[in-house]
Structure prediction request, 955 residues.
Amino acid sequence: MRPFLKSIAAYLARFEAETLSGMKILIPNRRAGVFLRRHLAEEMKKTGWMPDICSVDEFIDELSPFRRPPEVELVFTLYRLYEARATNPEPLETFYFWAEIMLRDFDEIDKYLVDAGALFRNIVDLREIEEPTAGLDERQIAFIRQFWGSFLEGDETREKTRFLEIWTLLPQLYQALRDELESKGLAYPGMQYRALAEGLESFSAKIRPERGFVLAGFNALNAAEQRLFSYLKEHGARFFWDYDLQYCGDEGDEAGRFLRKNLQAFKPEELGDDFQGLSKEKQIRLIELPGDVLQAKFLPRLLGEGAWSAERDCTDTAIVLCDEDLLMPVLMSLPGEELEVNVTMGYPLRSSAAFGLIDGLIQLQLNTRQADSEGPLFYYADVENILRHFYLPFLLDDPAKGRAILKRMADENLVLLSGSIFEGSGLEYIFRALGDRDNGVSYLKEVVQRCLSSMKSSESEQATALDRASVLQLIVHLNQLLVLPEPVSRLTLQMQFNLVRKMLSGLRIPFEGEPLQGLQLMGILETRLLDFRHLIVLSMNDDIMPGRSAPQSYVPYALRLAFGMPSREDREAIYAYYFKRLLQRAERVDLLFNGKNEGLHSGEMSRYLHQLFYRHGLQVERPGMKLKAAFAPGLSFGHSERLVQKLERYRDGGEDARMLSPSAINTYLDCRLKFYLRYLAGIGEARDVKEELDAQGFGTLVHDAMKQLYDGLKDEQGVITAEALHQLKDSDLPEKSLRACFIDLHFKGRKNARIEGRNRLIFKVMLRYIQKIIEHDTGRAPFRILALEHTVERRIGLELPGGEFPVRIYGTIDRIDRTGGILRVIDYKTGKAKTGFKDVSSLFEQDSATRNKAAMQTLLYCWLAGEDYPGEAIAPGLYVVGDLFGASYDPLLKEGKGRNAVQVHDFRELEEKFLESLTKTLVSIFDPTVPFGPVESTQACRYCDYAGLCRREGL
Ligand code: SF4
Prediction:
């Protein structure tokens, strides 16, 4: 079908060719103008000047003698007026949000030519509204009665009082704002619209209606536009409406709500089109996908199908994003190289990397502490935010310097960084502390300005058009704040930053690509007046199309109806029109929606899609296609040549041979894949700054402190008596020793570091644990320490198909002591653990959630220590520190179930079975027929560092 703009171009070329050059064509948005010009160029038979094409908003702005100030200037002006009138004025940053609502209301009041005095009248006596002097008709009176009647009913509440306070201020603010702006030659758009509509004759010289006006493609008209259009109609203007008989002929169809009136009030020219596109056959598909990003991922498939292959010219294809936040996932999913893509939409600035940078800078400044001796101290998380930001290469000449600081932070576990660390890095202009009265906006602008300059430099190819556009937007808006008549620096730093955040978070970056070539990527508003053969519409969910809420307003619903201001129903009708109009001339339409019910997302498809089914009888194909995210990718590694080489490194006797630890063997038994990732692929945990001591550090500190204390306590023979333990417990030594270990381990030896916040609580718990171990040991003293934190290793020969394969196992035993003539191998456990286990083979059960890992490890230590104490009985003991608080805790391991469990007094009685199971496990590690695959049960994945890699996160 012929695009609507092409029909208009053909009409104009045929009937208006002679007058076209002087003509003015008004359309709803500028973007459509580019397409109209192209069609006119195609249709015109001879060379001539193009008509002047612009949006109605541009036209009115052009006619107005008043200039539009930036919104932030309006907010500041409004705030000043409010501050002078309110009894208890709110601070500016709180008022900013209200101001945006008020300005939107004032704008609508003026565009809809509402009598502001009548609207804002505070109705004390409802009879007043029936007085002829009130100038209200019956319909208005009914709505006003409806609102004020129910409002005044019942008790006075806080909300009602608050509403009345604002309501009584609104007329004063409305009038004062208009007066002040007018006195300065300024106006917000609504003021310009009202001035024009109420004084059309006086504008006639500027409008020059005789030049010939064409008005095309409008839908909902405000009152000022209606007056302007009537005026132009009287002077011969021609009208073209883009509609379909299906919804315009059905009084109940909201999509035709405005066009039914427009078609009557402004009769259209005869274009020769039948306006029945919706009744024609189309290939419409409805595709439900389980997630937002999956809709984007599905696009290459839709573009590559059959005759619609991506190899063809995609100029007649549009991807429409009802949710503009999907721009990035979509751009990343499209086949970039072979496809030309034009983006025309407003992208939310808050979703951009540039906004992330500003937010990071604000956070950095707000969290900076002033320490007298060291100057400013920056919080590590804020520093990391900036040094890991995607824009770091644009912020300093040598990004390696930034990375070096990150490394130093991790190595030295720096939680608070003094400013001196940045000296000579080129980052001093960012990492400087601002005072409360400094100009925070200038600081932010300086950083983003530097960013933009680097992006513009010829060497920089990393910055995308989106990066440049978003940084530019930031600079424009920060500049607006800096040039305000009232200096922003009169606000505190916190207020300045709050203001910047508020101002920026609602902005959109206007993207306008070369719209004539390639695949079009557009927001729903940008589709007005345009037609495409193939449409792919994303996020056709009811909470997005049309969305659940109307913009916030101080004018209640009933009063909006009374005074002819746009209502929620009007907004829904406008979106219904956008959607149906888009379908009119398309041949193929793919409508995608996210069917996942998650968070605020209902997973409901849009009501407009339901209407397609039930009201219009269009044949909508449901391919029944559901994509499911792969539950687990089946990540598994066989014994490749490379892997065999890696395993070979465990052969004992080789150069730099590796050894296996009890933790590695436990990891293998828990999950072979995890063993592969950690020990063979070498994917370890990221080394980060740790503000708080983690579980691993907790265990290490208790071990270290115990070693220090008992090393200092034992006599020359290694004996520790009960008396010595008593004295130790009552002294400050445990605390001093633990503190020293804490400083060494967590703060990497920084003597001035302080144990604060949650670390203080953790410190107290650790100290309590240490005291409990001492107390427990007092009951068994005297005993002789044979070794503390003692590393041992032992060789074991494995019989593999390829011959003997010796490996070496090593481990650090927490403590070996002799008490009451019994040799004990003790392992401290600061986490949860049990002393009981079913039998030896249960300790080596693969993938078992109930396997006693601590017991396996302790027995393995006994085996390792066994070589040093030939023929001697070895008792395995577990100090589960949390359980020491129980009165009769016995650390000896127990084998068996329930009442049949028996204490293991001598490991040697289990040694044979233990060695057999251990050997079997070790052989399986090197067995080429056993791949390194994932654990079956997902229970082990919950706290696994690799859950993201295995796609088992959140299972
Ligand atoms: S996430 Fe699960 S399957 Fe993956 S390595 Fe960890 S434990 Fe194994």
